[in-house]
Structures are given as structure tokens and as C-alpha cells.
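## Example record

The block below lists the input lines for one assembly entry, exactly as stored, with component labels intact.
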Amino acid sequence: MSVLAGKRKRQELASSLSATLSNEERVVYNIIRGRKEMGIWQGDIKRETNIPDSLMKKSIKMLLAKTLIKEVVNIQNKSKKVLMAAEFEPSKEITGGEWYTEGKLDTQLIEALSDVCMKLILRQKVSTREGILDWIRKVGTEIFPGGVSAGQVEQILKVLVLENKVQEVNSTGFGDFASVPAGEVCYRLAKKTAVGVKVGAMASFPCGVCPRINACTPDGVISPTNCQYFEKWLDF
Amino acid sequence: MATQYGIKFAIHLITNHFGNLVAKVCENLLRHGPLTLDQLIHYTELSKEQVKNSLLVLVQHNCAQAFVPEPEDDGSRLRIRTEYMALFDNIIHRLRFPKFLEIVSRKLDEECVELLDGLLRDGRLTLKQMVDRASQGKENAVATNAVREILCKLLAARFVERCPAPEPVVSTSFKETTTRKRGAKSAKIFEAPETLEQRVIFAAVPGDGIRFSLTPDTGSNVDGETNSDDAQMSVEENVEFGAEEEKILWRANFEEFIRHLRRKVLVENVRAQHDDGTATVLNAVLEATRTVERKVKMDNSVPLSLDTIVTEVMKTDTGRTMTIDRIRASLGQLGCSQRMIVDDSYSIDLKKIIERARNEEVESIVLKRYGRDAYRMFRLLSRDGDFHDTDQIAASTLVEKKEAPKLLHKLWNDNYLYMEKIPVTGARMQNTSITMWKVNKPLLWEYVLDEMYHAALNLNLRMAFEQEKDEELLNVPKDKLKEPGPLQKKYKRLLNVWLLLGSSLMKLDDALMLFHDF
Ligand code: SF4
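Predicted C-alpha cells for the full assembly:
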């Protein structure tokens, strides 16, 4: 309701304000507004009108000052700011989705959310997606003032599975799973070997993870006998 | 087929063990495939004598096999000429001899270890040669009967076998499919050999009846097979017992050792993924069906009924306390769900366990070499094996949109990913394309295997280099090395270097087997 009310208010404001706009300002404003939540790049406005450059720049400045339009960072090209009518929320294509703030991936948010999920799973041993979401909504309002959507929690869990930190399993209804009805999808910490994620045979010595292996030959410029990676590794 | 670096590594091993001449002959066999003596002389530019001697060494050590291509029906090939073929797998097995000895030491006893050690060192031995070997350095000669008994133990465990026929006749035309008359059950499990190498080995191996039997061929072709070597054996049938025994050559049965190692890997992987109970169940199933397995790379375990499995599990130390419900739950974890079970017999998907282990190895390389973001993207693609476009990958793995294509290209550039550009024709987007990515496992695994051989070769070369560098140390009397000082320090470093390089190589060898032999 409040969003709608706000929108209406702004629309009224716009129509009343439009009376006070200059001709150029009105043309520019209409072009921008016509693009809705996609917005438009300044250069593209130029192509659609024949307003002289300086006048157009001035109009945009005025429109911004009157908060009829706003500048939005475009994820596709950060130097190409997009102009958008104030009443629209930028589309996913422009912002990059809910994980992006100011056109940048919000790694802090991701980390904080992963952390909270991991901690809860560790405590509960086995957790469901709904359980995690409820808990975050209850205790996490301080950490996540913007709120967290169900979709976000779901995606964080998927990423934790991809990172091999968490396992997605079906509840058996017994033991650790007792709190979850059998058959329901739930999450638990991934089994680790004693030293954390299992290090493979190749990953345990220089050649296995060497960026130069394709250039390395027995008697070439780079070779196992003169290789710096080996020097470092065998330096006791 | 052996990969490029696989061949290089094999040649390196042969050079180390048998010198340059033998290695040259071996290299030509590996690179050109089967060759006749004349062809070998031509390619190697060595004398006939040198080539012959090299071949003898290779055959003696089970690194090469001779065979006679079956003359074709039209009579166009009247001259029968023996061809020689390098046995790549057996060459690489030389790296694993310590592991083979360790298995025998665990399963049997020290006497067996000693006898096997002799076989591994000399390649092939007759009973008499074994006796001579055992008697060396001892005051009294060891009794033949004693050695025969040890040999019997090794044969019963299938760790030793009769040497294959020296020159089996093999059809080189691939049209006909090999069918063998066996019980209906094994016919299902058995698959026709594919490559010429497999064909030759297959034709040369004596039937199971005599392959592991100490007494000379009894003439009763146990399972009615008509292997080429049987004819040759039966000619000798009438010869006196003792004289015959003299002639039989024995060698280590690599296949059984590899089977053992594979079983261990299967069980340990299940233990790491699930729990001890599940590992116990798998082990019992594999142990019970050991002698029925027809090849090493079994995709599924031989089907067993629940009753049989329960009996087998209860027989083991760790399984004695397991209830039927617990066993059934473990079978469920191993992927035998109730609805997949036909006629109450359980068969475990072993291939899946191996694939999981391979994935883990590759993923750990990706993590270390390309970092966490790449690791997530790779795992996403590797899990379903389907095509995904760049944006979709970035979004599902929460990787910065600008970074994702860079990392994906890096992985693609290093052969870890497969890429395809799909042109998009739309009103607004002309001449654009979407880049799609996927993990192509068979291709990737072959590539990783080649990198592993490369890495193994490098480790070996570095070991040789370290030894050379500190050669003087080996000539220093032992007492001197015990005194504190620069010499001792150097010596200690060398020991550490050897330990680290050696253990890395053995661990890498496990991975080689995982990708090649299992
Ligand atoms: S020897 Fe050195 S340069 Fe060559 S592959 Fe190994 S680590 Fe890389």
C-alpha cells in the first residue's frame, strides 16, 4: 500500500512539476521516463532529440536537482551511468540483482549471510531452508537491516553446497534428522577429512598446480631442475 | 591409449631401469604400435643383435609381448611374421612394486614377500630359478618343496600366475566379436576386449584353470576354452612331470594387485563419504565376489542377495555387530534403493564411487590453481555436465559478473572447460553470441591424466637432480654424517627432500591409477 501511495504521490508531483519545466527539460524527461525501469544513457538521449549538447546537459542537471530523475549505476558498464525517472526501481539487468549494491557484488553481505547459515547449521546439525530463514528474520535484523529474502537464503545455501562446505541431503527422520520429517530436503555440514577439505595428490606438490606446466620440459628454459617452485618447496 | 606424457614417463622409467638401448626399442613400440623385428631395426637404427636383446629384456620383464597376426582368409599373407607390442600398463606398474610387496606382506607372510620380490626384480622365473635365488648366500640349498609351498600360497591368492603364451595368434581384423563359452552368469559380466593390446593380452593369458595352478596342465581344459596357448600346452602334456615343471615360467599377477588397490580405494572413499559401517558392507561384498570378477574395471559389483551379504558382513570383525536394518541402510547409502533391486539381489554402482573420487581430485586442482570463485563455477558445471551461459554461471555462484568470464576463459584455456559460442539472432542484438560452458568429463580426465604423467616425470627428474647435486654425500663414511656440522645438515636436508619427493610420487601414483587403471 505504502509503495503505491508513494508512487501516486510522486506522479501527482511530476504532473504538477511538469508545468514548471522548460520545453527541453520536458522532452528529456519524457524520453527518460519512457524507458521505465531500464533507464537510458545520456548519449542515447542525444540520438533521440536534436537538443544541443549544452542545453541537454543543463536540462539533465535541472531534472536531477528537482529529483524527477536519478542516476543509477549500470552493472554492464560502470562508467556509463543510466538516467531513470525517480518513480522506477532499476531493473535486474542494470543493478545485477539483489546481490549488487552500487553496481558491485556485495561480498560483505554474502559473507555475513554465509556465516550466519553455517553457524546455525553447526548448532542444529541439520537445518531446513525455512528454519534458517525464520531464524535470520528473528535475530538477524541488526546484521541485515535491508532484510533477507527467501530467495537469498536459498542461493546462499546453494553456494555453500558448491563450496563443499554444506551438504544437501534428504532427511531419514532418524538420529540427527529427528527434527526434520523424513524425505524433506535439509542441510548439514559437509564431512571433512581431519585437515579440512581433502587435498588431492596433484594439489600437494608444485607441478600439480603449476601455472607453467605446459611450458615446462625436461631440458627446456623452464625445467624441473631449474624450477623456482621446487626450490621454494624443497627449502628446508 | 597412452597419452603423450604417459609415453614420455614410461620411456623415462625404462631408461632408468634398463638403459638407453632398451628404452629406444621401447619408445618405438610405444609410438608406432606393434612392429616386426625388421621394422624395429629400421626405426631404431640399431643392430639386429641389439634389438633382439632389448626385446628379450622387455619380454622378460613383462613390458612387451610378441604375437602373430592371424593370416587373413584370402591367403594374401602367407608369411607369418611375429610382431612385438609394448605393454604400457605393465611399464607403469614398475612404479608400484613397493605397493605390491606391501599388499603381500599384509595378506600373507615374509617368505611370500621375498619370493615375490625376486619375481618383480627378475620379471619371470621358473621354480628352479626361485630355489636358486632363495639359496643364494645360504650355506645349504633351500629345499624345492619349501619354495613350492610358498609359490602355492601366492598362487592361491592369485598374486602370481603362469606367464602368458609367448606368441599367441591374434586376429587383427576387428570385425568378429569375441564370444566365450562360459556360464550364463559370467557371460553377462564379460565384455569383449576393445583394443588390439587388450586382445593380445587376452589371447596370451592361459585359462583360469591352469593360470593359477602349480601342477602342469592336466589336459582337461577346465572351462572348455580354446585359447591359443592351450594347444601348445597340450603338446607337452605327455612329457614327464618334473621336466615340465622345470619349464613353467612364473610372474607376478599385476591384475590382482591392481584389483586389490582398486578395492581399497573404493572402500576408503565410501568410508570418507559415509561411515565405517557402509565401508564394511562394501568391503564384504567385494571380498565375497573376488574370484568371480572377470576384469579389474568392474562398473558394478557382482549381484548378491541380501542374505548372502548379511552372512558375509557378519563374517568380518567390524561387521559382526551390524544388524540387518543397519546393513540395509548402508546398501541404501551405496545407492541400492529398494525399487532398483531385482530378484532381491544387490549390485553396487562402483563406477560412481570412482567418478566421485576423480571429481574430487580435479576439483582440488582447480581450487588450488584458480581459487575459490573458479572452484564454485567449476563444481557447478561439473555436477550436471550441461551447458550454462556466462551470466547464469556468475549469478548461480555469486561471482562478480566482470570476473566470471575472465576466470572461465582461463579454465578453458587450460583445457579444464569446454566452450561453445552460440550465435544469437534477434531484432536488437545482431552479430552477438552467447558463450556457453560445460565440463566434458571424458576429455577432461584424459587431459588431467596426461598432466599427472607430466608431473610424475618432473618429480622423477627432480629426484635424480637432487641426488646428483649431493652425490659427494653418498661417498662420505656414515660416521662422519653423524657428527654435527655442515655435512650433517646437508645430509639431513637430502633425506628430507627424498622423503617428500618420494611420498609425493607415491601419492601421485595413486591418482594415476585412479584415472587410468580403476
Ligand atoms: S617443474 Fe616447476 S615449472 Fe615445471 S611443472 Fe613442476 S613446478 Fe612447474
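The domain at 4-86 of chain B is CATH 1.10.10.10 (Arc Repressor Mutant, subunit A). The radius of gyration of chain B is 27 Å.
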